[in-house]
Amino acid sequence: MKRNLLILSLVILFLTGCAGVSLKSDTTQIAVDVSATTIGYLVGQNNLDKIPEWNEWLDKLLALEVGDSVLSYELLLAKGIKLIDKPFIELQFTKLIRLLEFPELQPPTLPFLKAEYLEMVQVVLSGFRDGLMAAKAEVEK
Fold first, then answer.
1. SS3 sequence of the chain
2. What pLDDT digit, counting tens, does each position of 58-99 carry?
3. What total of structural domains would you count in the chain?
């Protein structure tokens, strides 16, 4: 499973690199969503006690709007990495977060989030949350 996840992550990174920052094809969007869901599931399985913290983190990120500061966005992303305690899962999560980094948004160029960037944030974080909730539901059965 770890090998399949690694291969899937590499494919996602390749597709995302080819498509640019905004999601231009349904295939890329689906692949990113599947990868985010899988990583969310792994994080949830290995950090069940932290799911409430993850949900709080996701709520804060998903509440960001067009015009919000890139700095607050980046600080929230960094906080998510601190919630993980297993090296392999941290690696996969870090790769997922790289999909949400936008170098051209670094101050002083464009210090505020734009709508086209928030589209990808929404896809990745929604998929991640779906994976967390699937892990939680599996344990509650």
1. CHHHHHHHHHHHHHHHHHHCCCCCCHHHHHHHHHHHHHHHHHHHHHCHHHHHHHHHHHHHHHCCCCCCEHHHHHHHHHHHHCCCCCHHHHHHHHHHHHCCCCHHHCCCCCCECCHHHHHHHHHHHHHHHHHHHHHHHHHHC
2. 888 888 777 777 777 777 777 888 888 888 888 888 888 777
3. 1
| Dihedral of the alpha carbons of 73, 78, 79, 85, in degrees to the nearest 10 | 150
Q: Tell me the C-alpha distance between 101 and 121, whole Å.
A: 9
Q: Identify the bridge partners of residue 112 per DSSP, sorted by sequence position.
A: 69
Measure the CA–CA gap between 56 and 62, rounded to whole angstroms.
Answer: 10
What is the domain extent for residue 54? 2-140
pTM: 0.71
Instruction: Give Cβ neighbours of residue 4 (< 8 Å, ≥ 6 apart).
Output: none
